[in-house]
């Protein structure tokens, strides 16, 4: 965990909801250690042609802004008000009903009123009123308007990088105001004057340089996949192939790079490889499209488009029929909400049809990209997989709905369908913390870094309390999820709040249960942990 000191859980959970004595416009930002993220390194901005590359940190008095920074921001705001109808609407229609106020995990876990979604939006809205509405121009503060100053810019930075763009608050807004879209515009404006965080910009720069967030070279991708194939052989006795950059494959498979390179995601990747081997899928990994994640979502609309385009360029180059996507979060939000407008429709690909079951995925008619849990649940439903769920009897599971597949796609049933067929002990967390109301891990949108550790633990607290609930009631020891960032951030969150619960991908769970042709007797799961001894002589 971080070198920054964090209080013990029993202290952090004593949350002070008392608002400051000063009015919100008069309460300056306090850049307290553990609650903000380091600035983007100049070399990464330069690589991406982003403006105002320099050495600075948020706690500096002087942020070394361009001389005309205010004009740049206001011009940027005007341009976006004209371009995005949603942004204009979200600036105008909030009635301050407060329905969203207590729905953000950062407010629940931290008690800072500026983390109430309604007030977070007001940080931007107040400047919008001042410069773009008649009432704001005439009546200023009386109309909820304020000047754009350096202190306001610092406040934007602090709070727009304390929003994970999870969209939980928007589920409760009677007007459908999407705070994530407001945060995205806020971050985009900050980017115009070079105020961004390294945990977002470095992965983006790496993606352009080597294809993935971690900056792994193509030979490194190959080595890692070969290494995972060795591990599969060791556990199962079956040698799986590693098709890479294979021209003419039926399907391009794109996963988040966290699944190639970081535990526990690597076990999920082993799961994909075992599944594809078992059904004889003609697919390929790619070293160019070696990243499903799209950190453009946390940078700018232009960056979303550029990163998403890589996947489709590779599909075209390899001549595949359609694309299968792994257990990733924001890849899917981009696919479902932006892809068609930005880069689509992908008419050069075919409407996805499973080569194993013949099922036509009509929902992917336009994007030509199918979610792995849709694909796998269809295999199970058609009886194409032999599963022994007893191999997961050492696991007492719960499932975390990752924000993007849940709220951006409505993908609730497919992962649960796979889980229920791959394991026997599954327990849901409380109803108001799952499905579309799921709580964020607290570390998405580039905030999963070590220097921001206190805010991560605070923001993840509501999710952790729901896990603690099922741990106490059902002795849950494992949480499944379908997002690479979740697999990383939830692991740290569980260590802090609910020790004894570890995290896994759904396809790790599936492949533990998958009975493969020619396999040896399995004595351990994919992690090498011993299977529970059987007390009966049940056969499959
Ligand atoms: S729920 Fe919607 S309308 Fe009500 S305060 Fe929040 S953003 Fe505004
Ligand atoms: S973190 Fe999520 S719930 Fe909080 S304001 Fe942002 S989008 Fe809304």
Describe this structure in a few short sentences:
The protein is mostly helical.
Describe this structure in words.
This protein is mainly alpha-helical and 540 residues long. The protein contains 24 helices and seven strands. Helix 23 links the parallel strand 6 and strand 7 (502-505). Bound molecules: iron/sulfur cluster (2 copies). One iron/sulfur cluster is lined by residues 103-104, 106, 117, 120, 163-169, 179-180, 183, 440.
The percent range for helix content is 40-55%
Q: What ligands are attached or bound here?
A: iron/sulfur cluster
The tally of beta strands, per DSSP, is 7
Shape: globular
Strand content: under 5%
Report how far the terminal alpha carbons are from each other: 43 Å
Q: Helical element count?
A: 24
Backbone structural class: mainly alpha
Mean pLDDT across all amino acids: 96
Strand order of the largest sheet: 2-1-3-4
**Main beta sheet strand tally, sense and closure:** 4 strands, parallel
**Low-confidence residue ranges:** none
**Cα-atom radius of gyration:** 24 Å
